[in-house]
Amino acid sequence: MNPTILLILVLFVGVEISFTSVIWANVIIIAISVLIMLWHRAPILSYVRLLLVPLIPAVGIWFSIRYFSTAQSVHFAWVMATRIYAYAFLGGLFTFSTTTEKTLASLEQNAHIPSTFVYGMLGAFNFVPKIRSEVKIIRASAQMRGINLHFWSPQLLFKAIVAALNWSENLAEAMTSHGFTENAPRTHRTVIRIPWWNYLLSVVSLVGLQLLLLSGLQ
Amino acid sequence: MQQKAAHSNRWHLRDVILITITSIFMGIIFFVTGFLYNGLTLALTPLGMAPFANDILLGLWTMAGPLAAFMLQKVGAATIGELLASAVEAIIGGQWGPSTLISGFVQGFGSELGFTFTLYRRYDMASLSLSVLTTAIVTFAWDLVRSGYAAYHPWMIVALFITRFISMWVFGALLVSAVTKLLDRSHLLDRRHA
Amino acid sequence: MSKINLNDVTFHYEPTLPPVIEHQNLAFDGGTFNLLTGPSGTGKSTLLKLIAGLYPAFMGEATGTITVNDQPVVDLPASKRAQLVAMMFQNPSQQFAMETPRNELIFTLENLQVPADKMDAQVNDALDFAGVTDFADRKFTSLSGGEQQKVSLAVIVALNAEVILLDEPFANIDPDARLFLLTQLTTLVKKYHKTIIVADHDLSDYEPLIDQLYIFDGERHQVHQADSGEAQTRFAAFEQRQHQPAPIALPAAELSPEFTLDGFTVGHQAPLINDASLNIPQGKFVVLTGANGTGKSTLFDALVKLQTYTGSLQWQGQEISKLRARKYAQYVALVFQQAASQFLTITVAEEIALSLKYQQTTAWTQSRIDATLASLDLAGRDDQVVYSLSEGQKKKLQVLLMLIMDVPTLLLDEPLTGLDLVSAHTVLKLLRHAVLEEHHTVLMITHQLTDVSQYADYHLHLSHHQLSYEASL
Predict the structure, then answer these.
(1) Is residue C252 in some structural domain?
(2) What GO cellular-component annotations does this UniProt entry give (chain C) (predicted)?
């Protein structure tokens, strides 16, 4: 499925289940996500991760609703716990249906997000390994001066921004010299299209969700 | 001829790169807080107080907006800065959770309001504190629905809100202000054309 | 008419600062290979960025006009300008937007609005010319500095720009890659009539290649074209400054070791240092040399726990990978290659106060610091922002800050870069003093070898993935 269409669909479903309290809707969303992940042959470990990561917050909220909500409703406790899992599995569904590069390319070509944002972000992501080692360097060099920097130390974030300023300047200049003009038209070696069935599938999914929410199921 | 670029509200390539790289830095620096969050949640779960873990640390995740607003001083900088940060979280975390992007937007919008109310003229502790207040209110309204906070007893709702405000003030105002003071004194932002 | 013309160009970074370039008139002819030289930090890179149209768009304020093919560069949109003037940047790893070389070339051609069906052929030709084909689909993060500069050349070829500017392009790359790039650049001039300007402070290998030499005079903020006499003098002076080695002792076997390498291997993709076994003695001044990109800094990173390794690397009999970083930093400290990495505050006085606050002994008193600041020509700069110091001043301050800490073992990565000869001697004297009087261990990487043998005890050399002591320096 086209990443832009899928992203919009996933966001829409995510917002809608935030406003409704139907356990079955959450469970069915989780089930459909698992089916799609199976179809994309997601590794076993990713299911384990998706089950474990939300476990602590889901259990936490279940108990707090049971203890401290005015109604102390078991039903609402389960709504909240399954909602957290539904968010996580919607994320899993999206992650295994596409890649970051395809998503950004589709956002440029289909959603017409300004190219400055698309390529600025792509360029910045090349710095991830450098950023990891820079954080280590900042910490180590402070230790060598007798100072231990913590995540709440202003100097740590300040030094990080100093590096970010430097790198962003250098990369933006280089990209400009590689012909990148902010928000100017570009050609595309790979043109990304939206097949007609994407629209159909989105409409069917959304209608299905509304029926589910209105069906009187809990 | 005299050549110099003028200040504008447009986002330039280097602004996008700067804010994205800064967000990645913050993601990596604050990575440890993930464990802190889980530990706190676990500790508070038997007491039924787990949501407090979220509100105690929430300030860390709402720093990107005010920081971007300070660094770029543009209309919309807080919103777009926070949205970029949430996209970074989605991509680096390998988890394109819809909730990440939605919360990013809600937080950014909340933070933006504070700067809008000062007509984008003040970038100091007062506007930061106002921005923290609007962020706390807007994100709390969203959590009343999304995280089911509305179902709690009124005293718990008030306690959660106060916790959230304090966390956001400590990180989003106090820490951001300390960092931006260093930036101001270094004059490193002066050379960049807006 | 010349290819590139500068007409009364003046450039400031900020109106309050003195100009970097002042009333500059200059012309470069088409189809020539030009070398621009001068001390680091004078403004060579500023001049290139002005010609490339990046300044004042990104920074600073300019007056006057710069034309390429009679077109003012500032008036062109970036995609048109890129096809006229291309640039290779100083930091190899900070010039690509995409993940792989092939995608960077596609990105470039898309920017130029090349039709999709024409792209692949152009991409492959450019990759081939620059010798990138073999690693075209590898991630940039896994490529060496030399490989990354080859990709930069491929982008320049794909842009097919008439003017090619190179800003200190060989600072971080190995000699083989440098030679290959120089050969291909010469081909671009001779066969394709491109106009090339390279900014470089290192003049080696250029004399037979270039048509014109340009010299940046930092005092006058101006560049002038050297006539053949001046060019010859310059090259001859550079050759002479090239260092005459002096004999130096080899370490005796009975010296107690500070560091012990045993089957030590380190490297990112391929090993840089392979299966090295030797001792680095305690309480001595050891100089580490080796060509660019051979792994000297990587060895330092391993010595301070910033880099993983295989085999054994011990500090005073303890395996470094097993030591606690925080504690270890009180015994072994690194003076980073990027001076700014070491700064934590804003002004010179604040930095010194910070080092005084955390120093391990009281060997450095305020009066000793003041005297040293004066001897380093840094006196009276207490309130200056450290980031606004020149590169040389940053280096000197950084070395002083780390000396004040009084850590027993100090590793220094290129502390002499950008320093004039007098300052270099002062720094070397300070280090020598730390070894002789305070019994510290000093291990220093340097390219600048002039007179270093007067201060050092031993010379450690890295080449062909091996470390060995040399009898001359």
Answers:
(1) no
(2) ATP-binding cassette (ABC) transporter complex
- The shortest C-alpha distance from C392 to chain B (Å) reads 19
C-facing residues of A in 36-75 (CB < 8 A) are: none
User: Which of C14, C56, C58 has the CB atom closest to B190's CB atom?
Assistant: C14
Chain B residues close to A71, C-beta within 8 Å: 151
CA distance C19 to A159: 28
Q: Which of A171, A172, A124, A136 is nearest to B24 (CA)?
A: A124
How confident is the prediction for chain A on average, in pLDDT? 94
Min Cα–Cα distance to chain C from B161, Å: 36
Give residue C120's domain range: 4-241
Question: Smallest CA–CA separation between A130 and chain B, in Å?
Answer: 10
Q: CB contact, 8 Å: A150 with chain C? A: no
CA distance C432 to chain B (A): 33
Give the pLDDT means over successive 10-residue stretches in chain C (473 positions): 91 88 95 91 90 93 94 92 95 94 97 96 97 95 92 97 94 87 96 95 89 91 92 86 84 92 89 93 96 90 95 96 95 94 96 95 94 94 93 94 96 91 93 95 92 94 94 90
Are residue C232 and residue C261 in the same domain, yes or no?
A: no
The answer to whether position C426 is within a domain reads: yes
Interface test with A, best of C110, C297, C357 (most A CBs within 10 A): C110
C363-399 per-position pLDDT tens digit: 999 999 999 999 999 999 999 999 989 889 999 999 9
Last residue of a domain, one of C208, C241, C274: C241
- Indicate whether C197 and C265 sit together in one domain: no
Q: Per the CB < 8 Å rule, is B50 touching A161?
A: no
Taking an 8 Å cut-off on Cβ atoms, the answer to whether A126 and C141 are in contact is yes
Q: Are residues C404 and C262 in the same domain?
A: yes
Q: C251 lies in a domain?
A: no
Residue B76 placed within a domain: yes
Q: Quick check: is B190 in a domain?
A: no
Q: Which residue has the tokens 């990495």?
A: C341
Cβ within 8 Å, pair B13-A124: no
- Examine residue B193 and state whether it is found in any structural domain, yes or no: no
pLDDT (0 to 100) of residue A215: 83
The number of domains in chain C is 2
The residues near C89 (Cβ < 8 Å, ≥ 6 apart) are A170, A173, A174, A177, C95, C152, C167, C169
Asked if residue C441 belongs to a domain, the reply is yes
Indicate yes or no: CB of C385 within 8 angstroms of CB of B14: no
Number of domains in chain B: 1
Instruction: Say if residue C292 is in the same domain as residue C417.
Output: yes
The whole-number pLDDT of residue C1 equals 65
> Which residues from chain C sit within 8 angstroms of residue B13, using beta carbons?
none
- A and B: number of Cβ contacts within 8 A: 199
- Smallest CA–CA distance, residue B37 to chain C, in Å, is 25
* DSSP notation for B55-89: HHHHHHHTSHHHHHHHHH--TTHHHHHHHHHHHHH
Helix axes C175-192, C145-159, angle to 10 degrees: 10
pLDDT tens sequence across A28-71: 999 999 999 999 999 999 999 999 989 999 999 999 999 998 88
C31 and C89 share a domain? yes
Task: Quote the tokens at residue C448.
Answer: 């600048």
CA angle C30, C31, C32 (to 5 degrees): 95
- In the numeric block, which tokens belong to residue A133? 């080692």
Is C295 found in the same domain as C178?
no
Return the CATH number at C77. 3.40.50.300
Residue B88 CA: distances (Å) to CA of A119, A124, B26, B77, B101: 14, 10, 10, 16, 10
Based on the domain organization, do C229 and C315 belong to the same domain? no
Judge if C19 and C96 occupy the same domain: yes
Q: For residue B132, what are the domain limits? A: 3-185
Q: Hey, are the CB atoms on A162 and C387 less than 8 Å from each other?
A: yes
Helices (H), B93-190: 98-117, 125-146, 154-168, 176-186
